[in-house]
Amino acid sequence: MKTKELKSGNKIPILGFGTWQLTEETCIEAVKIALEKGYRHIDTAEMYQNQKEVARGIQDSGIKRQNIFLTSKVWFSNLTKQDLRIALEKTLRELNTDYLDLYLIHWPNRKVDMSETLKAMDQAKNQGLIKSIGVSNFTINHLKDVLKAGVEISVNQVEFHPSLYQRALKKFMDEHGMLLTAYSPTAQGEDFGIDLIQDLAKKYRKTNSQIVLNWILSKDAVAIPRSKNPEHIEENLKALEFEMQESDLKKIDGLNLNNRLIQPDFADFDY
Ligand SMILES: NC(=O)c1ccc[n+]([C@@H]2O[C@H](COP(=O)([O-])OP(=O)(O)OC[C@H]3O[C@@H](n4cnc5c(N)ncnc54)[C@H](OP(=O)(O)O)[C@@H]3O)[C@@H](O)[C@H]2O)c1
Fold first, then answer.
1. Could you say which of 39, 48, 103, 183 is catalytic?
2. Does the CB atom of residue 50 touch ligand 1 within 6 A?
3. What are phi and psi of 143, to 5 degrees?
């Protein structure tokens, strides 16, 4: 699997496997199948309440822990130094591992001093409990606060797909060497309904999902599609195996509708 080097110096596989809403046996089986088919990057979070099942899927796959890039996230109510430590230890226990490859602040919470949280993460990094630090659902202004806090972050995981092409955020992140990980990369299937995506799928003899994921990867971003269907799991992996013409990629650039699907009431996107 192709990787990208993070600011921390660690390498992240460019296509990961999302696990939100995968629970119980479905989660165990999906993670196992994804690893068997070749994924080496798994995305979970304490909030998904499936970390034990993710660990079981990893164990059942027989793939060694050190060959897997494992991401988890701390919930926004656990961002004080003490709460973060408790949450991290629980996550490590549930995932049955000594370390995370990447630990993200799941959502910004301006009620807690950002530098307190980031310093707690940095301490965990220095202790070898996490290899890279990141954030999720951060706007440019949140990222400016991160820069002020002076702790290096490698990743911002945000919603990103053809109908939500966050061009300004991506540009800012590129300028600061932060990698964008695209969540809900298929817009949970919504972007498959776009005519241009369907036309390009026909032109390249690929599926709608492969066209959407391939466009994300062409932006130097990482994508983490989720599926419980073994055929879809494999199909998404094959999004890595072709290139589209620059003119077609540009056409997809023009599809943006600011179509944001994930906007819980605690989100802080107006900051
Ligand atoms: N940081 C955050 O706040 C945040 C928020 C949302 C998501 N995430 C992460 O990002 C991951 C992905 O996002 P997501 O789960 O919201 O959405 P997604 O991956 O865009 O979409 C998942 C949906 O698409 C379907 N699908 C996937 N591949 C397909 C294919 N090849 N053909 C047809 N349908 C396909 C799946 O159905 P089947 O199961 O039937 O294939 C599922 O219903 C999550 O699982 C999670 O790890 C993070």
1. 48
2. no
3. -65, -35
Alpha-carbon distances, residue 227 vs 49, 58, 184, 185 (angstroms):
17, 16, 11, 12
Closest ligand 1 atom number to CA of residue 210: 31
Catalytic site includes residue 99:
no
- Residue 230's pLDDT band (boundaries 50, 70, 90)? very high
The domain limits of the chain are: 11-253
The answer regarding whether domain 11-253 maps to CATH 3.20.20.100 reads yes
- Number of other CB atoms surrounding residue 217 within 10 Å: 18
Residue owning the nearest CA to atom 36 of ligand 1: 227
pLDDT in tens, 47-60: 999 999 999 999 99
Q: Write out pLDDT tens, residues 118-152.
A: 999 999 999 999 999 999 999 999 999 999 999 99
Residue 150 CA, chain-centre distance (Å), reads 23
Closest ligand 1 atom to Cα of 226: 19
